[in-house]
Automatic annotation (TrEMBL):
Protein name: Uncharacterized protein
Biological source species: Gottschalkia purinilytica
Taxonomic superkingdom: Bacteria
Region span, Disordered: 285-305
Taxonomy of the source species: Bacteria, Bacillati, Bacillota, Tissierellia, Tissierellales
């Protein structure tokens, strides 16, 4: 039970949060492309919850208070959470169909690992069954895609909201990222391919290119089109953001320029693995993981306020359900199947309206064709332009304005 002073603080903070969110409504609508999205502070939440069916983003007021965030920091967290929201709405199915789109890469890496397992004579070992390996591969690839989505979110906020580029605000962002474990030191604890995937955001934050253990050269300095690798990736992602591009362009770009290096590092690890029979022994030993083929935890951090990869997938599924419902509702309305009884219109009234609507259908079509022909003919008779108004034998605008007199 909260004491009086704490409850008062929460109520005052909630009121203040609602007031400044109201002032930022236009900026939020511009950023998300959705003026109907509502923002509700919740004193019991510790992270964001987006409910597409209600059109509400619930804000973790408790976490805001615990972290003593100011208005600018709160807005950054909202922007960071919703950075891909416009693209989610536009390309919902594309995000949910990523497994199908990346199936070729999943199958290839699964086959590569299974070949290595067969070489060791362990293909019948329960720890190395194809389904287990395939699930592991899919998870690793999806973790890469999620990390690059988050980097894109990070860059979009900086592009759309330049205030966060200044030293003070950017420093607060870096401080938050450190709290969630996004540090240069964390890279050294990861297997090579995961270290590579996590390094992009690390470089954005600290402006330092981490050295991945086991790599002779720094992967981020090698040249692509005469540009250092990282600078090329950064520039292309920013270019896509500024051109209002999304997953349609981003995933092929990842497949062409980022995934090959990720795959190469991953294969090196597979080649270096020492495999053991699963009974009574560890399956294999690789730095950073007791068993890489188990369902690895993605690089999500418990202290993060933002939605996890799994939560984003749930949001997308809810978005798709909502879109399907709207589409069905529109089709029913066009076909006269909509139920208006909840609005006080009886079934008998609906049937009566539909009867006369169908009865007058031919007359309405005749009138539509009459207007189309009349206005079409009038446009053909245009001869001069006077006082900014196109004139002919028939003044179309005047005719439309005074059509009752004409009839």
């Amino acid at each position: 039970m909260l004491d009086f002073d704490e409850q008062t603080l929460i109520e005052e903070s909630k009121k203040h949060c609602e007031e400044f969110l109201q002032k930022e409504q236009r900026s939020l609508a511009t950023f998300t492309g959705d003026s109907s999205l509502m923002y509700i502070p919740d004193s019991k939440l510790q992270k964001f919850i987006l409910d597409p069916s209600k059109g509400v983003l619930y804000l973790p007021l408790e976490s805001f208070l615990d972290r003593k965030l100011d208005s600018n920091q709160i807005m950054w967290h909202i922007y960071y959470e919703l950075a891909l929201y416009p693209d989610w709405k536009k390309q919902t199915k594309k995000y949910l169909n990523r497994k199908k789109d990346w199936q070729k890469e999943i199958d290839h890496m699964t086959s590569y690992i299974m070949t290595r397992i067969k070489k060791e004579g362990l293909e019948n070992d329960p720890a190395y069954q194809p389904k287990i390996i395939s699930n592991y591969v899919r998870k690793e690839i999806f973790d890469l895609l999620h990390l690059l989505d988050k980097q894109t979110s990070f860059l979009r906020v900086l592009q759309m909201c330049p205030i966060y580029r200044d030293e003070e605000n950017f420093g607060k962002i870096v401080s938050y990222m450190k709290q969630t474990g996004k540090t240069i030191e964390s890279i050294s604890q990861m297997p090579r391919h995961r270290a590579f995937a996590n390094s992009f955001l690390i470089i954005e934050l600290y402006k330092i290119k981490p050295k991945i253990e086991g790599c002779v050269e720094n992967l981020f300095d090698r040249k692509i089109f005469n540009q250092p690798f990282f600078e090329f990736i950064h520039y292309q992602l920013v270019k896509q953001i500024n051109n209002d591009k999304g997953i349609i362009e981003r995933d092929p770009f990842i497949r062409s320029f980022i995934f090959p290096t990720f795959e190469q590092l991953w294969k090196q690890e597979i080649d270096e693995m020492v495999f053991y029979k699963s009974k009574g022994q560890k399956e294999e030993q690789v730095k950073g993981s007791e068993n890489p083929f188990e369902q690895s935890k993605s690089d999500e951090i418990p202290n993060s306020l933002e939605s996890t990869q799994e939560e984003v997938e749930k949001i997308l599924e809810e978005m798709l359900d909502q879109q399907d419902q709207i589409s069905t509702s529109i089709q029913n309305t066009m076909q006269g199947k909509v139920d208006l009884e909840p609005y006080g219109i009886s079934q008998a009234d609906q049937q009566l309206f539909q009867f006369y609507s169908n009865k007058m259908k031919s007359e309405r079509e005749q009138m539509r064709q009459f207007w189309k022909k009349l206005i079409g003919d009038a446009k053909k008779e245009i001869s001069v332009k006077k006082d900014g108004q196109i004139k002919g034998k028939l003044d179309v605008d005047s005719f439309i304005n005074f059509y009752p007199d004409f009839v």
